[in-house]
Amino acid sequence: MSSTPPAKAIPLLLLKTPSTPHDGYRTHFTQHAPPFAPQFIPVLQHLFLPAALSQLRILLTTPTVPFPYGGLICTSQRAVEALGTVLSDATRSPPPLLQNLAVPLYTVGPATSRALTALRDQHLPRCSVHGREAGNGANLAAYILQHYPPSPSPAPAPAPRPPLLFLVGETRRDVIPVALTSSTLPAEQRIPVDELVVYETRVVERFGGTLGRTLRGLDEAGERVRWIVVFSPAGCAEMVRALRERGEGGTEGRDRGEETGSGVGEGEEEQERSIFVASIGPTTRDYLLQEFGFRVDVCADQPSPEGLAEGIERFMKERGLRAR
């Protein structure tokens, strides 16, 4: 009696650096049915800034000085890793301040929330993690304004609420600080925000060449369906260039923002296409369309492994696609 052969794993090129110590995208897609074969192609190089980490270490571990903030904001995986570096060094000889620190830790999205929760469980037992369902900075700011404790100063002249410390990279948007300090808010509802730049980011040299070589290797292996997942605008230009050099990324002459067909292989029949592109959210989707006239095939409803998998699976089912 013949048995059905196991489904072939679909190549999934994740344009990101794998998270440490565990990457949720690798775990989820490796266990997914139908199976995927995730492969990471780093787009960005993240470098921690020693002076900033030293400053953060002093804030968190100086026993004679109370922690001067009412909470922490970490909205990126690298910010969480920077915090983890400081906490790991500090807890080799645990200062009482860390064990007794009881402030909210705000984050955005399930992946960063999981990483921050793991740090909390290990190093900051009295802190609480919030923002898992926020999805973006604007939603997180609205949540913080509702959740964060009010000013301790009594009426009729309440002072601003205690400040928050926001761990950021050198390139970031100001959505959260602007929303929390908006002049449209009553003075007692505003939340001062101090940003501490703990890492800098650079595009990896020759990223586009690495992506092109990887795709050629998949060609030689006979892979006829493969996915590319884009996580941020960084590196998008190199990705589009690499695809267009293969004749699979539209034309250079299109007007920016023109919405005519899919970004990959425009004009090709669906069954003849081999490369499909997904974005982790609308910011990257819109950037690709506006800057390069490139429309992704899937935009995840939620910026998470589960949201990405659901979008890809739905797209493939609707079009009858499978590994070949």
Strands of the widest sheet, in order across it, are 3-8-7-4-5-6
Assembly type of the chains comes to: single chain
**Broad structural category:** alpha/beta
Major beta sheet, specifics?
Answer: 6 strands, mixed
Spatial gap, N to C terminus: 24 Å
- By DSSP, the count of extended strands is 11
Cα-atom Rg, whole angstroms?
23 Å
- 3D shape: elongated
Poorly predicted spans = 250-262, 264-269
Count every helix, treating DSSP H or I runs of 4 or more residues as helices: 11
Helicity level = 25-40%
What is the chain-wise order of helices and strands?
EHEEHEHHEHEHEHEHEHEHEH
Strand content: 15-25%
Please state the average pLDDT score.
84
